[in-house]
Specification:
The chain is an all-alpha fold. 34% of the residues lie in helices and 0% in strands. The protein contains 2 helices and no strands. The longest helix has 16 residues. The relative contact order is 0.11. The model has no long low-confidence stretch (mean pLDDT 77).
Length: 65
């Protein structure tokens, strides 16, 4: 639970010491500990790599768009 505590302390300190309205966390989807620690956040950020996207090198016309 040290990671959860650290995340809570970081969040509290950031809101207390800055004018930030939003904190954005990004982690690898396989990082189960970080996902558990950040479960209170109401946003999920997804990403796609060009090399993994079907038809990315073909352009919009050939990708069915």
């Amino acid at each position: 639970m040290a990671g959860t505590r650290a995340l809570r302390l970081w969040t509290a300190a950031t809101f207390a010491d800055t004018g930030a309205h939003i904190l954005t966390l990004t982690t690898w989807s396989g990082n189960a500990r970080m996902l558990r620690a950040a479960q209170r956040h109401d946003s999920v950020k997804l990403a796609a790599l060009r090399r993994d996207w079907p038809g990315a090198s073909a352009g919009c016309e050939n990708a069915g768009l």
